[in-house]
Amino acid sequence: MNMQVDKLVSRNLTSVLGLPFDNVTTDDVVEKIRECCLTGTRCFLTTPNLNFAITASSDNEFFNSVVASDLSIADGMPIVLLARLIGEQLPERVAGSTVFESLSSTSATERKLKVFFFGGQPGVAEKAHNKLNESSQGLEACGWHDPGFVSVEDMSNHEIIEMINAAAPDFLVLALGARKGQEWLMRNRHALRVPVISHLGAVINFVAGEVSRAPRLVQKLGFEWLWRIKEEPSLWRRYWSDGIELIKCLIHQVLPLAVVRFLERSRPNKSKSSRQVNFQQSDQGFTVVCSGFLDDNALQEVKQRFYEILCTGSNITLNLTEATSISQQWIGFLLALQRNLADRDRCLFMQLPSQRIMRIFRYSNVLKRFHIIDSSEANAEFNV
Residue 5: what pLDDT? Predict the structure, then answer.
Protein backbone atom coordinates (compact mmCIF):
# COMPACT_ATOMS: atom_id res chain seq x y z
CA MET A 1 0.00 0.00 0.00
CA ASN A 2 2.92 2.37 0.72
CA MET A 3 3.89 2.07 -2.95
CA GLN A 4 0.55 3.64 -3.87
CA VAL A 5 1.24 6.45 -1.41
CA ASP A 6 4.69 6.96 -2.93
CA LYS A 7 3.14 7.23 -6.39
CA LEU A 8 0.58 9.77 -5.20
CA VAL A 9 2.92 12.19 -3.46
CA SER A 10 5.53 12.01 -6.22
CA ARG A 11 3.09 12.97 -8.97
CA ASN A 12 2.87 16.53 -10.26
CA LEU A 13 -0.84 16.82 -11.01
CA THR A 14 -3.11 19.57 -12.21
CA SER A 15 -6.86 19.66 -12.81
CA VAL A 16 -8.50 20.54 -16.15
CA LEU A 17 -12.23 20.10 -16.87
CA GLY A 18 -12.65 18.16 -13.65
CA LEU A 19 -9.95 15.53 -14.28
CA PRO A 20 -6.40 15.21 -12.90
CA PHE A 21 -3.52 15.31 -15.40
CA ASP A 22 0.15 14.53 -14.85
CA ASN A 23 2.45 17.39 -15.81
CA VAL A 24 4.69 15.30 -18.08
CA THR A 25 6.15 15.23 -21.58
CA THR A 26 5.98 12.41 -24.10
CA ASP A 27 9.59 11.50 -23.31
CA ASP A 28 8.74 11.33 -19.59
CA VAL A 29 5.89 8.89 -20.27
CA VAL A 30 7.95 6.72 -22.62
CA GLU A 31 10.70 6.49 -20.01
CA LYS A 32 8.18 5.72 -17.25
CA ILE A 33 6.51 2.94 -19.21
CA ARG A 34 9.81 1.37 -20.19
CA GLU A 35 10.99 1.49 -16.58
CA CYS A 36 7.76 -0.08 -15.27
CA CYS A 37 7.89 -2.83 -17.90
CA LEU A 38 11.48 -3.73 -17.10
CA THR A 39 11.08 -3.61 -13.32
CA GLY A 40 7.60 -5.16 -13.17
CA THR A 41 6.15 -2.07 -11.47
CA ARG A 42 2.39 -1.70 -11.87
CA CYS A 43 1.20 1.26 -13.94
CA PHE A 44 -2.38 1.93 -15.01
CA LEU A 45 -1.99 4.45 -17.86
CA THR A 46 -5.01 6.57 -18.81
CA THR A 47 -5.12 8.91 -21.80
CA PRO A 48 -7.91 11.46 -21.21
CA ASN A 49 -8.90 13.71 -24.08
CA LEU A 50 -11.86 16.07 -24.46
CA ASN A 51 -14.26 13.15 -24.92
CA PHE A 52 -12.97 11.55 -21.70
CA ALA A 53 -13.58 14.76 -19.77
CA ILE A 54 -17.10 15.15 -21.14
CA THR A 55 -17.98 11.51 -20.46
CA ALA A 56 -16.50 11.61 -16.96
CA SER A 57 -18.62 14.65 -16.09
CA SER A 58 -21.81 12.56 -16.21
CA ASP A 59 -20.46 9.04 -15.56
CA ASN A 60 -19.10 8.50 -12.05
CA GLU A 61 -17.64 5.08 -12.78
CA PHE A 62 -15.78 6.41 -15.78
CA PHE A 63 -14.52 9.36 -13.71
CA ASN A 64 -13.29 6.96 -11.02
CA SER A 65 -11.38 4.94 -13.62
CA VAL A 66 -9.42 8.04 -14.64
CA VAL A 67 -8.70 9.14 -11.07
CA ALA A 68 -7.65 5.59 -10.16
CA SER A 69 -4.91 5.55 -12.80
CA ASP A 70 -1.23 5.85 -11.95
CA LEU A 71 -0.47 8.07 -14.93
CA SER A 72 -3.01 10.38 -16.60
CA ILE A 73 -1.78 12.13 -19.75
CA ALA A 74 -3.33 14.95 -21.79
CA ASP A 75 -4.14 13.11 -25.01
CA GLY A 76 -5.72 16.03 -26.85
CA MET A 77 -4.79 19.58 -27.83
CA PRO A 78 -8.06 21.01 -26.41
CA ILE A 79 -6.95 19.86 -22.94
CA VAL A 80 -3.55 21.57 -23.33
CA LEU A 81 -5.09 24.79 -24.68
CA LEU A 82 -7.77 24.93 -21.99
CA ALA A 83 -5.09 24.41 -19.34
CA ARG A 84 -3.16 27.38 -20.71
CA LEU A 85 -6.31 29.48 -20.70
CA ILE A 86 -6.68 29.00 -16.94
CA GLY A 87 -2.97 29.62 -16.35
CA GLU A 88 -1.76 26.03 -16.18
CA GLN A 89 1.21 24.95 -18.29
CA LEU A 90 0.87 21.34 -19.34
CA PRO A 91 4.08 21.05 -21.38
CA GLU A 92 2.56 19.40 -24.45
CA ARG A 93 -0.04 17.07 -25.79
CA VAL A 94 0.99 13.53 -24.86
CA ALA A 95 -0.86 11.26 -27.27
CA GLY A 96 -1.05 7.59 -26.38
CA SER A 97 -0.42 6.77 -30.04
CA THR A 98 2.78 8.83 -30.04
CA VAL A 99 3.97 7.14 -26.86
CA PHE A 100 3.39 3.71 -28.43
CA GLU A 101 5.14 4.77 -31.66
CA SER A 102 8.16 5.97 -29.69
CA LEU A 103 8.38 2.72 -27.74
CA SER A 104 8.11 0.77 -30.99
CA SER A 105 10.60 2.76 -33.06
CA THR A 106 13.34 3.03 -30.43
CA SER A 107 15.81 0.16 -30.37
CA ALA A 108 15.67 -1.84 -27.16
CA THR A 109 18.65 -1.30 -24.86
CA GLU A 110 17.98 -4.37 -22.70
CA ARG A 111 15.25 -6.35 -24.43
CA LYS A 112 12.14 -5.76 -26.48
CA LEU A 113 9.04 -5.07 -24.42
CA LYS A 114 6.27 -7.61 -24.91
CA VAL A 115 2.84 -6.32 -25.96
CA PHE A 116 -0.55 -8.05 -25.88
CA PHE A 117 -3.35 -6.63 -28.05
CA PHE A 118 -6.91 -7.02 -26.72
CA GLY A 119 -10.01 -5.95 -28.63
CA GLY A 120 -10.54 -4.03 -31.84
CA GLN A 121 -12.64 -4.97 -34.83
CA PRO A 122 -12.63 -8.68 -35.85
CA GLY A 123 -9.20 -9.69 -37.12
CA VAL A 124 -7.52 -6.34 -36.37
CA ALA A 125 -5.75 -7.41 -33.15
CA GLU A 126 -4.22 -10.41 -34.93
CA LYS A 127 -3.15 -8.20 -37.82
CA ALA A 128 -1.58 -5.70 -35.41
CA HIS A 129 0.24 -8.58 -33.69
CA ASN A 130 1.78 -9.73 -36.97
CA LYS A 131 2.60 -6.24 -38.26
CA LEU A 132 4.32 -5.22 -35.04
CA ASN A 133 6.62 -8.24 -35.14
CA GLU A 134 7.54 -7.48 -38.73
CA SER A 135 8.86 -3.99 -38.11
CA SER A 136 9.19 -2.93 -34.47
CA GLN A 137 12.62 -2.25 -33.01
CA GLY A 138 11.57 -1.89 -29.39
CA LEU A 139 8.39 -3.95 -29.02
CA GLU A 140 7.43 -7.58 -29.55
CA ALA A 141 3.83 -8.78 -29.79
CA CYS A 142 3.33 -11.81 -27.54
CA GLY A 143 -0.37 -12.39 -28.06
CA TRP A 144 -3.76 -11.08 -29.08
CA HIS A 145 -7.40 -11.72 -28.36
CA ASP A 146 -10.61 -10.53 -29.99
CA PRO A 147 -13.40 -10.98 -27.41
CA GLY A 148 -16.10 -9.95 -29.89
CA PHE A 149 -19.06 -7.74 -29.09
CA VAL A 150 -19.84 -9.13 -25.66
CA SER A 151 -20.36 -7.64 -22.21
CA VAL A 152 -17.52 -6.63 -19.91
CA GLU A 153 -18.51 -9.51 -17.64
CA ASP A 154 -18.29 -12.04 -20.47
CA MET A 155 -14.83 -10.85 -21.49
CA SER A 156 -13.61 -10.94 -17.89
CA ASN A 157 -13.82 -14.67 -17.28
CA HIS A 158 -10.98 -16.62 -15.69
CA GLU A 159 -9.90 -18.25 -18.94
CA ILE A 160 -9.34 -14.92 -20.70
CA ILE A 161 -7.44 -13.41 -17.78
CA GLU A 162 -5.22 -16.48 -17.48
CA MET A 163 -4.60 -16.49 -21.25
CA ILE A 164 -3.28 -12.95 -21.01
CA ASN A 165 -1.19 -13.70 -17.93
CA ALA A 166 0.24 -16.83 -19.53
CA ALA A 167 1.54 -14.76 -22.46
CA ALA A 168 3.54 -12.74 -19.87
CA PRO A 169 3.20 -9.33 -21.57
CA ASP A 170 4.88 -6.20 -20.25
CA PHE A 171 2.24 -3.96 -21.80
CA LEU A 172 -1.46 -4.74 -22.32
CA VAL A 173 -3.12 -2.54 -24.98
CA LEU A 174 -6.93 -2.48 -25.15
CA ALA A 175 -9.27 -1.29 -27.90
CA LEU A 176 -12.82 -1.71 -26.65
CA GLY A 177 -14.18 1.83 -26.75
CA ALA A 178 -13.17 4.21 -23.96
CA ARG A 179 -16.03 3.56 -21.54
CA LYS A 180 -15.95 -0.22 -21.96
CA GLY A 181 -12.17 -0.37 -21.93
CA GLN A 182 -11.83 1.63 -18.72
CA GLU A 183 -14.52 -0.50 -17.08
CA TRP A 184 -12.75 -3.71 -18.11
CA LEU A 185 -9.43 -2.47 -16.73
CA MET A 186 -10.97 -1.39 -13.42
CA ARG A 187 -12.65 -4.76 -13.08
CA ASN A 188 -9.60 -6.90 -13.90
CA ARG A 189 -6.49 -4.84 -13.10
CA HIS A 190 -5.77 -6.64 -9.82
CA ALA A 191 -6.05 -10.09 -11.45
CA LEU A 192 -3.75 -9.17 -14.33
CA ARG A 193 -0.06 -9.93 -13.89
CA VAL A 194 0.95 -7.24 -16.38
CA PRO A 195 3.09 -4.23 -15.39
CA VAL A 196 1.53 -1.63 -17.72
CA ILE A 197 -2.12 -1.63 -18.78
CA SER A 198 -3.94 0.95 -20.88
CA HIS A 199 -6.82 1.51 -23.24
CA LEU A 200 -5.20 2.90 -26.41
CA GLY A 201 -8.08 2.32 -28.81
CA ALA A 202 -6.72 3.79 -32.04
CA VAL A 203 -3.27 2.24 -31.59
CA ILE A 204 -4.37 -1.21 -32.70
CA ASN A 205 -5.83 0.24 -35.91
CA PHE A 206 -2.69 2.25 -36.58
CA VAL A 207 -0.36 -0.71 -36.01
CA ALA A 208 -2.54 -3.01 -38.12
CA GLY A 209 -2.54 -0.47 -40.94
CA GLU A 210 -6.34 -0.26 -40.95
CA VAL A 211 -6.18 3.51 -40.39
CA SER A 212 -3.34 5.90 -41.19
CA ARG A 213 -2.30 8.45 -38.61
CA ALA A 214 -2.17 12.17 -39.37
CA PRO A 215 1.16 13.64 -40.56
CA ARG A 216 3.33 15.20 -37.84
CA LEU A 217 2.56 18.76 -38.92
CA VAL A 218 -1.19 18.13 -38.71
CA GLN A 219 -0.70 16.66 -35.23
CA LYS A 220 1.33 19.64 -34.03
CA LEU A 221 -1.20 22.12 -35.36
CA GLY A 222 -3.92 20.37 -33.36
CA PHE A 223 -5.97 19.19 -36.32
CA GLU A 224 -5.51 15.43 -35.98
CA TRP A 225 -9.23 15.17 -35.27
CA LEU A 226 -9.96 16.38 -38.81
CA TRP A 227 -7.66 13.70 -40.20
CA ARG A 228 -9.39 11.08 -38.05
CA ILE A 229 -12.75 12.09 -39.55
CA LYS A 230 -11.25 11.67 -43.01
CA GLU A 231 -10.05 8.18 -42.09
CA GLU A 232 -13.11 7.20 -40.05
CA PRO A 233 -16.11 9.30 -41.20
CA SER A 234 -18.38 7.89 -38.50
CA LEU A 235 -16.36 9.82 -35.91
CA TRP A 236 -17.86 13.14 -36.99
CA ARG A 237 -20.88 12.59 -34.75
CA ARG A 238 -18.70 12.20 -31.67
CA TYR A 239 -16.57 15.21 -32.53
CA TRP A 240 -19.67 17.32 -33.26
CA SER A 241 -21.19 16.36 -29.90
CA ASP A 242 -17.88 17.03 -28.12
CA GLY A 243 -17.67 20.43 -29.81
CA ILE A 244 -21.10 21.44 -28.52
CA GLU A 245 -20.19 20.32 -25.00
CA LEU A 246 -16.88 22.18 -25.23
CA ILE A 247 -18.71 25.44 -25.98
CA LYS A 248 -20.88 24.89 -22.90
CA CYS A 249 -17.80 24.17 -20.77
CA LEU A 250 -16.12 27.32 -22.04
CA ILE A 251 -19.09 29.52 -21.17
CA HIS A 252 -19.98 28.05 -17.79
CA GLN A 253 -16.64 26.82 -16.44
CA VAL A 254 -13.41 27.57 -18.28
CA LEU A 255 -13.83 31.28 -19.05
CA PRO A 256 -15.13 32.16 -15.56
CA LEU A 257 -12.23 30.23 -14.05
CA ALA A 258 -9.79 31.97 -16.42
CA VAL A 259 -11.07 35.33 -15.15
CA VAL A 260 -10.59 34.23 -11.52
CA ARG A 261 -7.04 33.06 -12.22
CA PHE A 262 -6.21 36.25 -14.14
CA LEU A 263 -7.36 38.41 -11.22
CA GLU A 264 -5.30 36.27 -8.83
CA ARG A 265 -2.18 36.77 -10.91
CA SER A 266 -2.82 40.52 -10.78
CA ARG A 267 -2.80 40.63 -6.97
CA PRO A 268 0.24 41.77 -5.00
CA ASN A 269 2.66 38.96 -4.15
CA LYS A 270 2.18 39.69 -0.47
CA SER A 271 -1.43 38.50 -0.52
CA LYS A 272 -0.42 35.34 -2.37
CA SER A 273 2.27 34.42 0.15
CA SER A 274 -0.18 34.64 3.05
CA ARG A 275 -0.94 31.00 3.72
CA GLN A 276 -0.85 28.45 6.50
CA VAL A 277 -1.45 24.69 6.63
CA ASN A 278 -1.74 23.07 10.06
CA PHE A 279 -2.17 19.37 10.80
CA GLN A 280 -4.17 18.34 13.85
CA GLN A 281 -4.43 14.74 15.02
CA SER A 282 -7.18 13.15 17.11
CA ASP A 283 -8.23 9.60 17.92
CA GLN A 284 -10.53 9.64 14.89
CA GLY A 285 -8.08 10.93 12.30
CA PHE A 286 -6.44 14.09 11.02
CA THR A 287 -7.80 17.56 10.38
CA VAL A 288 -5.84 19.75 7.98
CA VAL A 289 -6.66 23.42 8.57
CA CYS A 290 -5.77 25.66 5.63
CA SER A 291 -5.85 29.43 5.38
CA GLY A 292 -4.77 31.99 2.83
CA PHE A 293 -3.71 31.37 -0.75
CA LEU A 294 -3.11 27.64 -1.34
CA ASP A 295 -0.72 27.80 -4.27
CA ASP A 296 1.55 25.20 -5.85
CA ASN A 297 4.46 26.04 -3.54
CA ALA A 298 2.29 25.44 -0.48
CA LEU A 299 1.35 22.01 -1.81
CA GLN A 300 4.97 21.00 -2.33
CA GLU A 301 5.78 22.10 1.22
CA VAL A 302 3.13 19.85 2.82
CA LYS A 303 3.21 16.77 0.59
CA GLN A 304 5.56 14.95 2.95
CA ARG A 305 3.13 15.52 5.80
CA PHE A 306 0.28 14.11 3.71
CA TYR A 307 2.51 11.10 2.98
CA GLU A 308 2.94 10.45 6.71
CA ILE A 309 -0.82 10.71 7.31
CA LEU A 310 -1.65 8.34 4.45
CA CYS A 311 0.74 5.77 5.86
CA THR A 312 -1.26 5.75 9.12
CA GLY A 313 -4.45 4.79 7.26
CA SER A 314 -6.49 7.58 8.85
CA ASN A 315 -9.45 9.60 7.61
CA ILE A 316 -8.69 13.18 6.66
CA THR A 317 -10.82 16.29 7.08
CA LEU A 318 -9.70 19.33 5.11
CA ASN A 319 -10.89 22.61 6.63
CA LEU A 320 -10.90 25.35 3.99
CA THR A 321 -12.97 27.91 5.90
CA GLU A 322 -10.21 30.53 5.89
CA ALA A 323 -8.70 29.65 2.51
CA THR A 324 -8.84 32.52 0.02
CA SER A 325 -7.94 30.50 -3.07
CA ILE A 326 -6.71 27.08 -4.18
CA SER A 327 -4.61 26.20 -7.23
CA GLN A 328 -5.42 23.64 -9.90
CA GLN A 329 -2.46 21.57 -8.67
CA TRP A 330 -4.07 21.36 -5.24
CA ILE A 331 -7.34 20.27 -6.85
CA GLY A 332 -5.60 17.60 -8.94
CA PHE A 333 -3.80 16.33 -5.84
CA LEU A 334 -7.01 16.25 -3.77
CA LEU A 335 -8.83 14.24 -6.43
CA ALA A 336 -6.06 11.64 -6.37
CA LEU A 337 -5.81 11.79 -2.57
CA GLN A 338 -9.51 11.08 -2.22
CA ARG A 339 -9.23 8.06 -4.51
CA ASN A 340 -6.22 6.75 -2.57
CA LEU A 341 -8.19 6.97 0.68
CA ALA A 342 -11.24 5.31 -0.87
CA ASP A 343 -9.10 2.37 -2.00
CA ARG A 344 -8.36 1.66 1.66
CA ASP A 345 -11.93 2.33 2.87
CA ARG A 346 -11.06 5.74 4.27
CA CYS A 347 -12.56 9.14 3.52
CA LEU A 348 -11.59 12.68 2.65
CA PHE A 349 -14.05 15.19 4.09
CA MET A 350 -14.16 18.82 3.01
CA GLN A 351 -15.20 21.03 5.93
CA LEU A 352 -16.70 24.48 5.39
CA PRO A 353 -15.03 25.69 2.17
CA SER A 354 -15.22 29.46 1.77
CA GLN A 355 -17.52 30.82 -0.93
CA ARG A 356 -14.50 31.65 -3.06
CA ILE A 357 -13.24 28.06 -2.85
CA MET A 358 -16.71 26.74 -3.62
CA ARG A 359 -16.79 28.93 -6.72
CA ILE A 360 -13.37 27.68 -7.89
CA PHE A 361 -14.48 24.08 -7.33
CA ARG A 362 -17.65 24.73 -9.33
CA TYR A 363 -15.77 26.32 -12.25
CA SER A 364 -13.23 23.47 -12.11
CA ASN A 365 -16.11 20.95 -12.35
CA VAL A 366 -15.11 19.16 -9.14
CA LEU A 367 -17.58 20.50 -6.58
CA LYS A 368 -19.70 17.34 -6.78
CA ARG A 369 -16.62 15.15 -6.36
CA PHE A 370 -15.93 16.05 -2.74
CA HIS A 371 -17.79 15.12 0.43
CA ILE A 372 -18.53 18.55 1.92
CA ILE A 373 -19.65 18.70 5.57
CA ASP A 374 -20.34 21.42 8.14
CA SER A 375 -18.75 21.69 11.56
CA SER A 376 -21.59 19.82 13.31
CA GLU A 377 -21.01 16.81 11.06
CA ALA A 378 -17.21 16.69 11.26
CA ASN A 379 -16.80 14.53 14.37
CA ALA A 380 -19.62 12.17 13.41
CA GLU A 381 -18.26 11.69 9.89
CA PHE A 382 -14.84 10.79 11.23
CA ASN A 383 -16.34 7.61 12.62
CA VAL A 384 -17.70 6.38 9.24
Answer: 80
